[in-house]
Specification:
Blueprint: H1 2-23, H2 28-32, H3 39-47, H4 50-55, E1 60-64, H5 67-70, H6 79-87, E2 90-91, H7 97-100, E3 107-111, E4 126-131, E5 137-141, E6 150-159, E7 163-168, H8 190-196, H9 200-209, H10 211-218, E8 223-228, H11 246-254, E9 257-259, H12 264-268, E10 288-292, E11 295-299, E12 304-314, E13 317-322, H13 329-332, H14 406-426
Parallel strand pairs: 1-7, 8-13
Antiparallel strand pairs: 1-2, 3-4, 4-5, 5-6, 6-7, 8-9, 10-11, 11-12, 12-13
């Protein structure tokens, strides 16, 4: 019985943590919407799809730029370059005004969203935060020799320990980010990219079927490719593609691509089925997306596949490798339903013979029963503060958060613990 009570208690605690975590989901665009001075910054978060990546993460800090500060980037660089620059302004840790002034030894390097792309060599994906003299906090690239060209201005909005939005005075620019040539869709050799990523079989099928031309024509307006690796075509259960008609092969290959730039963060936030290049009025040919932590899985109705790696993520093109060939229902039918569990049929019980009995005396109805109650880097520019002052502004957590209402959350928690206590007492 003791083990049962322990198990039930763990279940209750896990349930409560799940409810609390669910209640603290956030929406960065909604959080910034009431602040018109960040409208340009907010717009670029949406255009670059960084907003989706931010919304899919927890324990995060967004370094917001005012419209004036954004003028150094807006309209002067391609969207793919601006995305790289702004991804340096998304810290994968929680900082509010108070924590900025309590940094150990006065300085730290923190990981940014840019580091997760795999395109940031050395320390380019890290930001240097240094508590300076006079109560100021400086921000700059962690690349050796970089200056602290930006400083903390004020606190904008927080959902405590989930997401914090802070304003800084100027963009954080890592060396080479703005000067790097922006990829052009028409310049990308899709076949070469796929072959280099270990997807030679898939690339060969695209060329032989002519679907490569469909892909190339779609790139400029946005294209996302899910490329099965070579091992995926050798796996058990993969149909003999030589038995498909030409039209069916085309549909199968078009099913492995989406019209539009859809990075991993956007896939994580997808709730509804997503259309593919094979989708038309008569046939759905859609995909469903499920997420478990950082792992994203595509479900077809016949099989499913994990997104294994990101090959290219540069507006307007995304190329992912997947572990399995995606088999659409429209070509290969639904996956077989599991066989029903065997249930023994009970023999009918004999009908009892009821002897007549005198009518009972009338009785009053019973009264109701009441219910029970970072990596190494060179020394940063700037000296640590002698006596920093915390200057964070107070903020609430209502705007932009999909909060579970307090009564509902309290009721759920109360119900779980009441059940556990009751079962423990009964045991």
């Amino acid at each position: 019985m003791g083990a049962l009570r322990h198990h039930l208690l763990l279940l209750a605690v896990a349930t409560v943590f799940h409810l609390v975590a669910t209640s603290s989901a956030h929406n960065i665009t909604a959080m910034l919407e009431p602040f018109p001075d960040y409208s340009l910054f907010n717009s670029y978060l949406s255009q670059t799809k960084l907003a989706d990546e931010i919304n899919s993460r927890q324990t995060i800090t967004v370094l917001a730029l005012s419209n004036g500060a954004m003028s150094a980037l807006a309209g002067k660089h391609p969207l793919s370059v601006i995305k790289k620059a702004l991804s340096l302004h998304v810290l994968l840790d929680y900082y509010d005004g108070q924590k900025l002034h309590q940094i150990s030894k006065g300085t730290t390097l923190t990981t940014t969203l840019y580091q997760t792309t795999g395109n940031a060599p050395g320390n380019l994906g890290f930001v240097n935060i240094t508590d300076l003299k006079g109560g100021k906090v400086g921000f700059g690239s962690a690349a050796p020799g970089s200056k602290l060209d930006s400083s903390y201005t004020k606190s904008v909005k927080q959902i405590p320990y989930n997401i914090s939005v802070l304003e800084i005075s100027a963009p954080i620019i890592a060396p080479g980010v703005l000067s790097a040539p922006a990829p052009s869709g028409s310049d990308v050799n899709v076949t070469a990219v796929l072959e280099k990523a270990g997807c030679k079989t898939f690339a060969s099928l695209l060329v032989k079927s002519g679907v490569i031309k469909t892909y190339e024509a779609a790139i400029d307006k946005g294209l996302t490719i899910f490329a099965p690796n070579d091992e995926a075509f050798k796996a058990d259960g993969v149909p003999d593609l030589s038995k498909l008609t030409n039209a069916e092969v085309v549909s199968l290959l078009e099913y492995h691509a989406l019209a539009g730039y859809t990075p991993i963060g956007t896939l994580k936030t997808s709730k509804d089925p997503i259309s593919t290049l094979a989708t038309n009025g008569a046939s759905k040919y859609d995909l469903k997306v499920t997420t478990a932590g950082d792992e994203v899985t595509l479900k077809t109705g016949v099989d499913s596949s994990r997104i294994a790696d990101t090959v290219i993520d540069a507006t307007p093109l995304c190329v992912f490798t997947v572990d399995n060939v995606l088999l659409p229902e429209e070509l290969f039918g639904k996956s077989p339903a599991p066989a029903p569990a065997f249930e023994p049929v009970a023999a009918p019980s004999p009908t009892p013979i009821v002897s007549p009995s005198p009518a009972p005396e009338s009785a009053e109805p019973p009264s109701p029963v009441s219910s029970p109650p970072a990596p190494p880097a060179e020394a940063p520019v700037g000296s640590p503060a002698d006596s920093p002052e915390a200057e964070s502004e107070s903020s609430t957590s209502d705007n932009g958060a999909f909060d579970v209402k307090a009564p509902a959350l309290f009721a759920a928690i109360t119900t779980v613990f009441a059940t556990v206590i009751s079962m423990a007492l009964l045991s």
